[in-house]
Amino acid sequence: MSRNKIIAGNWKMNVKPSETAALVKGVAEATAAYSNVEIVCCTPAIDVPAAVAAAAGTPVGIGSENCHWEDHGAFTGEISTGMLLDAGAKYVIVGHSERRQYFGETDETVNKRARAAIAAGLTTIVCIGETLEERDAGKLNEVIERQVNVGLKDISAADCARLVIAYEPVWAIGTGRTATPDQAQEVHALIRATLAKLVGVETAETVRIQYGGSMKPGNAAELLAKKDIDGGLIGGAALKAADFAGIIAAASAAS
Ligand code: 13P
Asked: Which of 13, 40, 233 to mutate to test the pocket of ligand 1 (most atoms within 8 A of CB)?
């Protein structure tokens, strides 16, 4: 089964609206040769309109870093899927570990956001991953299985066409410490096997699973060479077009 590699930047809280067009255009120019890779920039919600305008006519897709599950209403500070679509976004990240760690996100709220985003037609990147404490306590499998089973509850086989999973070991995010390709592959295989129990083996084989956590041009090729690693979710290295393009070049070569 060949899955089209997907490299997505997660800008986090780093780029202002006035800085957005330059970064998106830089990414589009630096990656024009890599048409066999799906390229995405997920930006702060306030940057989405500028990012969509800058990406027009290029293959770069634009997404947001979160969305709410309700359509509209009294949810101060939240952004709905309809608002994102109206602004031209096609992707959204849900359940990032920083949302879980700092903003009370749980597997249940991740599931609500993911189901709403997929139903709205957004390609939805659902993030999962263990903390170092969980890994050291021998709970890796239990945590990953729970995050998949609860976070993706009631997602149908048809919904999987718009689902991407990102495996981001929390201890590798922004730390410069990357999971080894073998460590990452082992968890990616577990994620796919767990997903297969929910939606069937055949459908699980079609779902892209990204690795995230200190991925950069220098380590992307060996990670992306692994059988179940279908892309990357990139933080720090997505903030410089040349670094992001280096990872996309590696994904293109691995395809
Ligand atoms: P870094 O690439 O900065 O480690 O961040 C990874 C991440 O959290 C992407 O969502």
From this structure: 233
Q: In terms of DSSP H, where are the helices of 32-106?
A: 48-55, 81-86, 97-102
Closest CA to 182 of 144, 225, 246: 225
Residue whose CA lies nearest to ligand 1 atom number 5: 235
Cα distances (Å, whole numbers) of residue 180 to 58, 130, 177, 219: 33, 15, 9, 9
Residue 241 CB–ligand 1 contact under 6 Å: no
The helix/strand/coil state of 191 is helix
Residue 1's pLDDT is: 60
In this model, does residue 227 exceed pLDDT 80? yes
Residue pLDDT, tens place only, 68-93? 999 999 999 999 999 999 999 999 99
Instruction: Give the pair of three-digit tokens for residue 180.
Output: 């080894």
CB of 125 within 6 A of ligand 1: the answer is no
Torsion of CA 147, 112, 234, 182, to 10 degrees: 20
234 lines ligand 1 (CB under 6 A): yes
CATH topology of domain 6-254: TIM Barrel (3.20.20)
Per-residue pLDDT tens digits for 117-172? 999 999 999 999 999 999 999 999 999 999 999 999 999 999 999 999 999 999 99
Helix (H, G, I), strand (E, B) or coil at 252: helix
